[in-house]
Design goal:
This protein has 90 residues and is an alpha+beta fold. It has a single domain (25-87), classed as Resolvase, N-terminal catalytic domain (Rossmann fold). The chain is 34% helix and 21% strand. It has 2 helices and 2 strands. It has helices at 38-56, 76-87, and strands at residues 25-33, 61-70. It has a two-stranded parallel sheet with strand order 1-2. The longest helix is centred in the middle third of the chain and has 19 residues, at 38-56. The chain is elongated and about 80 Å long. The termini are far apart.
Amino acid sequence: MATITMIPARPTVGARKKTEDAPKLRVAAYCRVSTDTDEQATSYDAQIEHYTEFIEKHPGWELAGIYADMKTPSLIQFNDLRRLAGRGVS
C-alpha cells in the first residue's frame, strides 16, 4: 500500500492580516534620575524624549505612558508600572 504524506497549505500572499488591522502593542517607558544635579535634570528630559521618539517610530506600538521617578530613593512609579503590566491593564 502506498504511503500518503499530507503537506499543509501555505497561506497565500495577501491572506495575512494587514499590520494596520492588527492591535497595537501598548508600550510604556520608565525613566529615573537619582540625584538633584543639573546634569541629571537634563538626563531626565533626554530619557523622556528618547523613549517617546523610540516608541513612536514603531508603527505597531502605542505609547501607554512614561513612568518616572525623580530624586527619590523609592521606586514608586516603577512599582506602579510593574503592577499594571502584571495585570495586563490596557
